[in-house]
Specification:
Layout lengths: L1 H12 L1 H19 L10 E2 L7 H8 L1 E2 L3 H7 L4 H32 L3 H12 L6 H12 L5 H8 L14 H26 L3 H9 L4 H25 L7 H6 L8 H4 L2 H12 L2 H29 L7
Antiparallel strand pairs: 1-2
Length: 313
């Protein structure tokens, strides 16, 4: 009874905070935890024509073990899609971290707050644009006959480039587009962390004659390092997941660009359009989730060994 009374007392005391958490918790329960039993599709040859409704068909479908996983591991392009997925994500993590922190530091140094808000809003806007809209923007720049870039090259006497048929430019284009869309959002997080640093540190440093660069190196970067580590650990967990919109919409599904734009997610999607097998897509998603979980736990363990206080958990 005492425990129950204590639980109710804590509930009443923290009611406002629990109410604030409720929307996020409901989103996770509905879209992350409730669909988890669907992982059973990865180990079955699902056939909807077996009768008994949707759930009856699931239980009557034949168990196939790890056969659905063979689709991914024995794929003809297995090496290419794995290489593209991992290398692109590594570049996104490193450059995203460097550019976001650099942008947050520059914004923090702006003394005119209205100008800082204007820059911050301008950088934040691309995050809210869908990849479909961004793909049309990109096409207006890279179109062979009417693209802005080719028109500028024409004024300089350079032959127009068929951007959507030449793979060599696309690693740079995709990295640039990912940074353009995401750096503003990430820099706001770091800017909030910098704004939370006690101002007395900077005042003491200025009294000692420290320059802005020295204040950044000795105060700002060390104090936002826990935030940088946590966001990097979370990003490492998604290293086997590619941004489908970026790799499918921006290259406009051009077959000539597949050697540098085909990743695990786009490969699975294109394969499913042909085969229509739910088990294979579930197996691919489960594989990516398990590898992501292992990577997060491994990275967190490494960070914990170096500095226990900066680990995620």
């Amino acid at each position: 009874m005492n425990r129950l009374a204590t639980a109710f007392r804590n509930l009443r005391r923290n009611g406002a905070f629990l109410l604030m958490v409720l929307p996020g918790a409901a989103w996770f329960i509905l879209f992350c935890y409730l669909p988890m039993p669907g992982a059973i599709f990865a180990f079955k040859e699902f056939r909807v024509d077996l009768g008994g409704g949707f759930f009856g068909a699931i239980f009557r479908s034949e168990w196939v073990g790890f056969k659905n996983f063979e689709f991914l591991f024995k794929a003809h392009d297995a090496y290419i899609i794995t290489r593209n997925t991992v290398l692109y994500n590594l570049v996104f993590i490193v450059l995203g971290l460097v550019c976001s922190v650099a942008m947050a530091l520059l914004l923090f140094q702006l003394t005119q707050k209205r100008l800082a808000k204007l820059y911050q809003t301008a950088m934040f806007m691309p995050y809210f644009l869908s990849w479909v809209i961004v793909s049309y923007f990109t096409f207006s720049f890279l179109s062979v006959d009417k693209g802005v870039v080719n028109q500028l090259l024409g004024t300089l006497g350079v032959q127009p480039i068929d951007w959507y048929s030449d793979p060599k430019y696309w690693p740079y284009i995709l990295v640039f587009m990912n940074l353009w869309k995401g750096v503003g959002y990430s820099s706001v997080i770091y800017l909030a962390a910098i704004a939370g640093i006690d101002k007395t540190y900077y005042e003491a440093a200025m009294i000692d004659g420290a320059s802005k660069w020295q204040q950044t190196l000795r105060i700002t970067l060390p104090l936002i390092r826990p935030m940088m580590i946590i966001l990097t650990i979370l990003a490492v967990g998604g290293i086997f997941r590619a941004n489908f919109g970026l790799f499918f919409q921006i290259p406009r599904d051009s077959g000539a660009l597949f050697p540098v734009t085909n990743v695990i997610d786009t490969y699975v999607y294109r394969s499913l359009k042909v085969l229509g097998d739910f088990g294979m897509s579930t197996a691919a998603g489960l594989y990516q989730s398990v590898v992501g979980l292992i990577l997060v736990l491994t990275t967190n363990k490494i960070v914990k060994k170096i500095n226990e206080e900066q680990a995620l958990f």
